[in-house]
Amino acid sequence: MVAAVVRRDDGRFLLSRRLPDSHLGGLWEFPGGAVEDGEGPDEALRRELLEELGVDIAVEAPITFAFHRDPQRDVVLLFYEARIVSGVPVGKQGQEMGWFTAAELASIATPPADAELIAGLTKKRERG
Question: What's the pTM?
Answer without folding.
Answer: 0.88
